[in-house]
Amino acid sequence: MSRPRGDHAERRAVIARAATAVIAERGLETLTLRDLAAALGATTGVLTHYFPSKDALVAHTKELVFDACYARARLAAEGASGRDRLHAVVAELLPVDDERRTTWRVLVAFQGSAVGSAELRRAHGRRMRRWFALFEDLVTPLVPAAGGGRVSPRPAPGDDGNAAALGMAVALLVEGMAIHFAMLERPLSAARQVAFARAQVDRLVPGARRSSRRRTVAR
Fold this sequence. Notes:
Elements: H1 8-26, H2 33-40, H3 44-50, H4 54-77, H5 82-93, H6 98-114, H7 118-139, H8 163-183, H9 190-204, H10 206-218
Helix pairs in contact: 1-4, 1-6, 2-3, 4-5, 4-6, 4-7, 6-7, 6-8, 7-8, 8-9, 9-10
């Protein structure tokens, strides 16, 4: 990879994708600009043209990985409604194939490194706020309206009928399951992951649980 001509952002993305593969295989702590440059057939000078430091590369790589994951989740939410919409997003996020296992392993590596990096902690905070907003949107139609009126999106913290709190709970549950599934030495099948995750989500979301019971009775 010689010093690039053309689209600067695309060249940065190429480097970040290469960094993702190295991190997934060997961990974040072993990543060096020298090794990454060698893997790309380039010099460290080429890499520092785009990223002045390893920290800058790591922060950009984290954003790239999360943005791709978030985009898949948003796409999965299209064309469905209610419980099916929530279930579609949950299934899309689970590490059911090599690509998604890599995504979650890389995100785990970033979380560990964020402990000592203010920049990565800020990036983590931004990422989680986007997750929480996404899942709040998914669960809001499933939260019973109080008193026959509209759903109140932000009542007291900890209120299970609060769409914001419930969305946060589901987001954390799904992320936790995805991380642990991704780190298993012998991965669970896609079908087992999806069935388990949907059952746990339905325990949390009242509308989803009632819908599942009605479906069972109908059969």
